[in-house]
Fold this protein.
Amino acid sequence: MQAAEIQQQEELDRLRWGLIQKVMQELSTRFTQVAADEKVYLPLLQRYLARAAMAIDDHELVAKINAQDHARVAKKWDAFCSAAQVHKHLVLTPDPLLCLGGVRVRNSGNTIRMDNTFEARMERLQDELLQTVMEQLFATATTARGAMLGG
């Protein structure tokens, strides 16, 4: 009986891990959807830009964005930066960044860099994201297990 319960628990753990992996993979799809909606995405891009610029203690900065974003904002870059309330001189590089969205900002000497791309943010927050997903899955499993044992 115990061996069957252990085997069943292992299978449940594998299924939970598979669900966690699927949720994490679907984040990329969601980021792509967000980036496609200019009304939602452009203000978000401005916030990422402003936070990155504020994090670097230098007045001359260089920003790099993906090709889609470059096509959207390059011609109005100064106005875009002003609307983001960036009070530093920020130059947009002509070569695109390979990412789903977001911005990478560096100082002119290339010694300090703040990566606010979707991928970098997801990597920085991965532990918290995994914990949140696991808590949701395991909370449901713990409640169900308690109900089974409690009668």
Observations:
- The first helix runs from residue 2 to 36.
- Residues 144-151 have pLDDT under 50 and may be disordered.
- The CA atoms of residues 13 and 88 lie 50 Å apart.
- Helices lie at 2-36, 38-55, 67-73, 77-83, 118-124, 126-150.
